Fold Glycosyltransferase involved in cell wall biosynthesis.
Amino acid sequence: MKIACLSTFYPFRGGIAQFNANMYRVLEQQGHELKAFTFSRQYPDFLFPGQTQYVTEADVADPIESIPCLDTINPISYLTTAKKIKEWQPDILLMKYWMSFFGPSQGTVAKLMGPNTKVITVLDNVIPHEKRFIDTPFTSYFMKQNDGFVVMSKQVEKDMLHFQPNAIYNYHPHPLYDHFPAPIDREKACQELGLDPNKKTILFFGFIRNYKGLDLMIDAFNQLDDSYELVIAGESYGDFSAYQSQIDNSPLKANIKTHVRYIDDHEVPIFFSAANVCLLPYKSATQSGISTIALHYELPMIATDVGGLGEYILDGETGFMVEKPEVNLIAEKIKQYFTEDREQDFRENHKKFKENFSWTSLAKSIEDLVGKL
């Protein structure tokens, strides 16, 4: 098949670009002919909360060759992008959708495809975690322009069916981000991060946003004792001052280590090798790219039972699920994990469980969906 991919590609950085690069490569390996189309402007600078949208020298990025053409805030580019894609005459237009902001631009391109091009979207989110008044109209418009979907969590499936009750779709869990460097010795990792290898190390990793529950994590950490250490690593999408105030007022503030910045790919194994467990205290979720990194490194997880997080953890076998995003419950599960000394058992169980999250399997799911259309 000829597959045109319209989404975030190099030189943009971050989890979406990494996902698209991996998906592109595996479809290419399956014998399909692909061409990547990307944004000439993904977000206006004033709407982007991070430091930069683009790859830096420190990033480990797959430089997929792509055509920058879609400006999300310039409707003329919607028409010219559709024209460029149609000229290539693809069998499939494959996109990724994670925020309603992209509904008008990607939706219009999809609408302008000819009858010989089927439109498929991999859905990260249908209803964003941080809701805005534009969500329902923009998402509704976008969803109507698609022929089929791949959903990566049961929560996303439910949200999709709210908009498209008769949708044609496949479910496939988020594959593992397995392009990161190999793990390193824990003592060496602790040394690089200035940690005490004799303490029980908890990792909170990834972009810091309100719905991810870092405030709950800090309050839960306050219920532990001096034998614990908390590592917070990731760029803050918003003001970090409220979290910093929590840390400053914590009785265990000396045991909280912060790395509030974008974590380059080559640094990822340091954090995941130093930790004994990864915490995902989310207040809401669909799926989480962080959980797939933890699976890749076979690092046990403790996560709140919201959205699709439970699809990445076998409760009591590869990690623990917390019934609700509440401080006391999170603290109790942390204590249980270390009291019962479950780390090695959970790591062993990860080895087989993570086979369900392959990129080849995702490619086959997309191919199967095409057969349904």
